[in-house]
Fold:
Amino acid sequence: MSYRGWKFFEHVNNGKWTGTLCVVAAAFCAASASAQDLSDLPGQLLEKVEAAQQACSDFENGQFALEFGAVQRVDLDGDIYRDWVLNEAGFACSSAVSLYCGTGGCMSHFLVEDRMFSLLNQGWDMANIGPFRVLLADVHGSQCGGINPTPCIVANAWDPEEKVWRSTVAQWE
Structure:
């Protein structure tokens, strides 16, 4: 930050504008989160969003918001075209903090071509390993014979012939 920018920041923080700026910032964030355009979202993912909106509304008349990062476009199958991912970690309901996620994580819905697959996870990423695009997901430790904090990662490669995710349990020696 430049000296001039820092001086403005100092003035705002020491002055009467702090509260006003916080209110304006909060209003802007809330408006942008709930007013996202979903017209391009594929039908299968839109159904998930609509079900989440309904669940929120049904729980004490809550207000649903789709937060930043809930919808992502990522090449999942290695064909250089961006596929769709809907992360329920980006779902918010005003009347229920944990309506969409729990100790096992949150559901992510991966749409490749017209096939949707959902996975409960605590975070995911993509990697290139050899010729494959690999979906790496941090899942509940019980999937690795432990409990929630036990580190447990699954790796899945897309099979374009069968149109399914392929994975195995490693045989360690």
